[in-house]
Design goal:
The protein is of the alpha/beta class. The protein has two domains: 107 residues, 3-Layer(aba) Sandwich (Rossmann fold), CATH 3.40.50; 244 residues, TIM Barrel, CATH 3.20.20. The protein has eleven helices and 18 strands. It has an eight-stranded mixed sheet. The protein starts with a strand and ends with a strand.
Length: 364
């Protein structure tokens, strides 16, 4: 019986408890939950402060926010904790149901100051769904993709800073439109062996014809995260069946959270809509560059298409950073486009053949 602490007595803490009781009750024993804000018990298990965790047990961090995970990791390392894991909360986590840590967690290791919380990278720029308000402006691209060497170079530049990436997302566009996606996944996993790597897809292309890709996801322990948009919803049961058959670890982002979209950029800095940032922490790398969010990284396509002059400042070269600390600091700085970021909720729709500025921007 392996004894562990779980850091976080909130929603993810409940998920860890449920998963252990369902699959690993004979192998894993939660001694205590650690939480800064809660006290008492969770399902008769005590909730304690970190300073009261006296035993040298592994700690499983059960927090969704990757930036908070990085802060907790730094805190745990400072007090001498060696074995630190991050709970992944997959829908079908049983990659190897005999091993809780392999099936359910990512190992956090290395110097705490060398961690980048989150990185996103395009496998392709275009998409087969073309959602209105897409913050990547994928509907404005037409069958363009980066070369194999360009993607590998971006991964190499990033790994030159650190291989300690908490979460690394391969996305688009629709990444399954890329023929050599399996090679990209393998290279990412080889480079970032302990990261939570996810491929984000709308799921419409998932079929047994993608068997090689599905086997690659299984073999590399990379999560396929399916956004259940309206067209995907009717195929949900079929998709889950295929992924389970190939033993692919997956997450379904439910339709209830995807039938509304946030149109987040206004054509004016004086919009009547409340200012917000829905992309905080969604650092993107692309063709040797890095930006704090996808909106500014791909904004040139929008500006060029509609003859706009929205500010594109804030894109930096990946090779200019001397340390992870300087990279993280630069990626957290506000940029001029932040003044144009608002919260405008719309019902999910696809763009028509004739793309309009209003499909992507708040115009009042």
């Amino acid at each position: 019986m392996i004894k562990i602490y779980v850091y976080g007595a909130g929603l993810y803490g409940h998920y860890v408890l449920k998963r252990i009781k369902t699959y690993y009750e004979k192998e894993i024993d939660i001694v205590s939950f650690i939480d800064k804000n809660k006290t008492g018990e969770l399902n008769h298990i005590p909730i304690i402060r970190l300073e009261n965790a006296c035993e040298d047990f592994p700690v499983v961090v059960a927090i969704d926010n990757r930036y908070v995970v990085s802060e907790i990791y730094r805190e745990l390392r400072q007090v001498g904790v060696e074995k630190i894991f991050m709970f992944l909360n997959r829908d079908n986590p049983r990659y190897d149901k005999t091993d809780f840590f392999k099936s359910e967690c990512a190992l956090l290791m290395g110097k705490s100051e060398d961690y980048i919380p989150h990185i996103e990278m395009h496998a392709v720029d275009y998409c087969n769904l073309n959602c209105k308000a897409c913050i990547h402006f994928s509907a404005l691209y037409s069958k363009e993709e980066q070369s194999f060497d360009t993607i590998f170079n971006d991964i190499d530049l990033l790994s030159g800073l650190t291989t300690n990436i908490v979460s690394f997302y391969i996305m688009g566009g629709e990444p399954l439109l890329r023929d050599d996606l399996s090679d990209v996944i393998r290279y990412a996993r080889k480079t970032f062996p302990y990261s939570d790597i996810q491929v984000l897809t709308n799921g419409l292309l998932i079929s047994k014809e993608y068997g090689e890709l599905l086997c690659t996801l299984h073999d590399t322990n990379v999560t396929l995260t399916v956004s259940e948009y309206k067209p995907t919803q009717s195929r949900r049961e079929e998709i889950c069946k295929i992924l389970s058959e190939f033993r692919v670890p997956y997450i379904i982002r439910k339709y209830d959270s995807k039938n509304r979209f946030i149109k987040t950029i206004s054509i004016s800095a004086d919009s009547l809509y409340p200012k917000t940032c829905i992309c905080r922490g969604c650092v993107n790398i692309y063709k040797g560059l890095a930006a704090r969010c996808p909106a500014v990284m791909y904004l040139k396509r929008l500006n060029d298409r509609f003859n706009l002059t929205l500010p594109e400042d804030g894109i930096r070269s990946l090779d200019e950073f001397e340390s992870v600390d300087k990279f993280n600091s630069a990626m957290s700085e506000s940029i001029p486009l932040c003044e144009y970021c608002v919260y405008c909720e719309i019902e999910w729709e696809q763009c028509g053949l004739d793309k309009k500025m209003e499909d992507f921007l708040v115009v009042n």
